[in-house]
Amino acid sequence: MSEPTGLVDEASTSGGDGGGERQSEPEAGSGVLRVFGRQLKRFRVRAGMERPEFGSMTGYSVSTIAAYEQGRRVPPPRFIDQADEVLDAGGVLQEMKEEVARAQYPAFFRDAARLEGEAVELHVYANQAVPGLLQTEEYARAVFGMMRPPLDEDSIEERVVARLARQEVFAKRPEPLMSFAIDESVLRRPIGGRGVLRGQLEQILLAGQKRTVEIQVMPLGSEEHAGLAGPFTLIETSEGHRIAYVEVQNVSHVHTERRLVKGLEVKYGILRAQALTPKASLIYVEKLLGEL
């Protein structure tokens, strides 16, 4: 596999776990969306349906159907399944789900999302927001709802769907080995309100029960902290390639240069040594949950 030595771009709300403020239309993925849109329209016309009728059968507005057909918006997997069945497409539309799903990420994050989905190991350090792979739907919606300038409701929904789709990595067999080092400040910040935070902490506890997942908390009281420069993710592929993804202030990099990746690996190892153990961390999260 040949990865670039440094992809750099502005972050978008579909990518980094804390959100981002970019609101542009899909670019690199627009070709896939246009192809899907043409196929969707072709099957709709073949079925003799106008957009209002098709929309009522799938539960989507005429304007949304038009946006899907014109390749201006990313259709969610549920819509693709419905459309394939309603239009008797014989699985043609469903076969495009994977490529369409990738189009929901910004260009700079698309490679990272693909690598994340194919990883045999994922290691995440977070000090701004709960890692996207662990976020609940309510937490993710709250994160996107706080973006400034504000996103419209459709954009928020698209980004929530994109973020939750990344969590399908937990359903892989064999499941990749994952670890998360999370700053305590993240677990105390009531994004979306105390109820949302309560549900989020419960989600973290559930994830921490998995044999392939280790969660560690970096306590606020720690006098040593190797991760003050910001969040990052380490990825190892089945081919043995090691990649680092870094995002700071809406600027993101995918690193494959060994020297840079190795430096972050060393930093992550120190972070884990400074943090609470996985067992002590889950006990600590339970304590935080009890305080809400």
UniProtKB/TrEMBL annotation:
Q: Name one GO molecular function term.
A: DNA binding
Region annotation (Disordered) ranges: 1-31
Which InterPro entries has this protein been placed in? Cro/C1-type_HTH (IPR001387), DUF5753 (IPR043917), Lambda_DNA-bd_dom_sf (IPR010982)
Q: In terms of domain of life, where is this protein from? A: Bacteria
Question: Which N-terminal residues, if any, form the signal peptide?
Answer: none
Query: Mind telling me which CDD domains this protein's record contains?
Result: HTH_XRE
List the Pfam families hit by this protein, alphabetically: DUF5753 (PF19054), HTH_31 (PF13560)
Alphabetized Gene3D superfamilies for the sequence: lambda repressor-like DNA-binding domains
| Domain HTH cro/C1-type, chain residue ranges per copy | 40-75
| SMART domains in alphabetical order | HTH_XRE (SM00530)
Name of the protein in question: Helix-turn-helix domain-containing protein
Which organism is the protein's source?
Streptomyces prasinopilosus
